[in-house]
O-acetyl-ADP-ribose deacetylase (Regulator of RNase III), contains Macro domain
Amino acid sequence: MMVDLCKMKNRIRIECIQGDITNQPDLDVVVNAANARLMPGGGVAGAIHRAAGPELAEACLPLAPIQPGEAVMTEGFGLPNGHIIHCLGPVYGVDEPSDALLADCYRNAVQLADQHGLAAIGFPALSTGAFGYPMEAAARVALGTLLAEAERLASVRLIRFVLFSERDRELHQRVLDELAARV
Ligand code: AR6
């Protein structure tokens, strides 16, 4: 049932689904779990560059390198979305403080989307793959940051977490339910 899958905050819907970040055609922008050079890699970055095509790497060249916590935007090229926001998450236990840097990613990405007048944004679980961030700790930082940020957004109306496994989706939904009940 729809109402079980989302939380409304300041008329913003936050939802957690299981799926592939490269296959979300109803979103204006998807977020890439990038590397500092903004080049193709494994995981999300590999999938996004494959789906977007080689023009994406060309468009990224003048924007790189980026720092942990930073977010930059390109167009979507072959992706079904108009835009891609590239975030460099912290390498867990290396880029410190990891929680503040991960929060910066989510805050900077959603603000960038809002500044460009976009309404619907999709996030993967940044830093939880190759960069080693424990999933539940990352979910608490991500969802806590976005719930706090929701008050300040003017154009963003939908925030979708796209988790690769059903287990990760359930974990994010549980954390979202818990955090949203407190605010
Ligand atoms: N859609 C949604 N989620 C996905 C997808 C997908 N298509 N593919 C993987 N995930 P990662 P990071 C999940 O490693 O930890 C790259 O090589 C995955 O299960 O993509 O920020 C870059 O080049 C995990 O939970 O991102 C960087 O060097 C989450 O997305 C580095 O990895 C993030 O996994 C970035 O590492």
Notes: The domain at 3-181 is CATH 3.40.220.10 (Leucine Aminopeptidase, subunit E; domain 1). The pocket of AR6 is lined by residues 20-22, 33, 35, 41-45, 47, 89, 124-131, 162, 164 (CB under 6 Å). The chain has a mean pLDDT of 95.
